[in-house]
Amino acid sequence: MRRGRGGAILAAMRRPPASQSAAFVGLAVLVLGGPLAAVSAPNPVRAAATAALEPPTRPVLAAAVPEPSHEVTSERLGGTDRYGTSVAISARTVPEGGVPVVYLASGAGFADALAAGPAAARSGGALLLTRPDRLPANVATELVRLAPGRVVVAGGPAAVSEAVVDEVRAALGPDVPIERAAGPDRYGTAAALVDGAFEATTPLLFLASGAGFPDALAAGAVAAAIGAPVLLTRPDRLPPETVRAIRRLRPERVVIAGGPAAVSPAVATAVAALGPTVERVGGADRFGTATALAKRFLPDASTVLVASGLGFADALAAVPLAGRLGAPILLTWPDSVSWPASVPHPTRDELRRRAPTSILVLGGPAAVSEFVRYELVGWADGRLSVPPPEPDYPAFDSRYHNPTELLNAVIVAAIWRPDLVDIFSIGTSYQGRDIWAAKVSDNVTVDEPEPEVLVDALHHAREHLTVEQALYLLNVLVGDYESDPAVRRLVDEREVFIVFALNPDGWAFDLGGSPYRGWRKNRQPNAGTSAVGTDPNRNYDYRWGCCGGSSGNPSAWNYRGPAPWSAPETRAMRDFVESRVVEGRQQIRTHVSLHTNGELILYPYGYTKVDVPADMDPVDQRTYVAMARAMARTNGYRPMQSSDLYITDGDQIDWMYARHRIFSFTFELYPTEQVSSHADHEPPDEVIVRETTRNRAALLYLIDLADCPYRAIGASDRCG
Ligand code: 0X9
Ligand code: CA
Ligand code: CA
Ligand code: CA
Ligand code: ZN
Question: Is ligand 1 within 6 A of the CB of residue 651?
Answer without folding.
Answer: yes
